Amino acid sequence: MIHKVEICGVNTAKLPMLTSDEMRRLFARLRAGDSTAREKLVNGNLRLVLSVIQRFNNRGEYMDDLFQVGCIGLIKAIDNFDLAQNVKFSTYAVPMIIGEIRRYLRDNNPIRVSRSLRDIAYKVLQVRDAMTNRFGREPSISEIATELNLKREEIVFALDAIQEPVSLFEPIFHDGGDPIFVMDQISDDKNQDDKWLEILAIKEALQKLNDREKVILTLRFYRGKTQMEVADEIGISQAQVSRLEKAALSQLRKNVQ
Questions:
Q1: What is the DSSP annotation of 169-219?
Q2: Mean pLDDT of 201-228
Q3: Angle at 72 between CA 59 and CA 82, to 5 degrees
């Protein structure tokens, strides 16, 4: 069997690889106006694009899309690379490929952040790095606020705005069984459903569960405890709580219906 990944119709097992000497000759031909050299440089560096997009494989994006965007970054790197700089092409190309992918992810992010807010956040990051080098430690938000003559709240809000959203269904822990998801770690202390008919139906359905399932659902959804807190209280592992909770919710839905 050939070990390969089929991406954008490309069999990655058959992608060519170029030596340093071949790269230099192709760049020399490209600068001399040979258009075929450009195509060979692109095809010979697709493995570089593949290695970069692996960093983004947990973003929920289609790898084919990221591969195509990465190829745009690769082409830009090829068109702008200067052999006289005496730098490896991969060293020059990787940041350009990453930058192209990050622009794509930012532009396609359903949560839009204003340009002014992004500008503040990037200034904060630059100042934080500069102050870290100056002080030998990471500065506080208040120190950064003083340096930039901004309110502390503006800085906190700007930094929060550029954080990438995390899916509630992103796995964060495995215990040899079902994964623990982000949503399993979130307390629910605002569960105040005023639809009394639904409450009555749920209470009736709860009576059909066994005692342990009732305790787990009560602690989780009526008292707002996390799975870890429930596990500590009843003396089992968090993974067990997760499995029992999912089974109980499934049975509860059937009983309510």
A1: T-EEEE-SSSEEEGGGG----------HHHHHHHHHHHTTS-HHHHHHHII
A2: 80
A3: 125
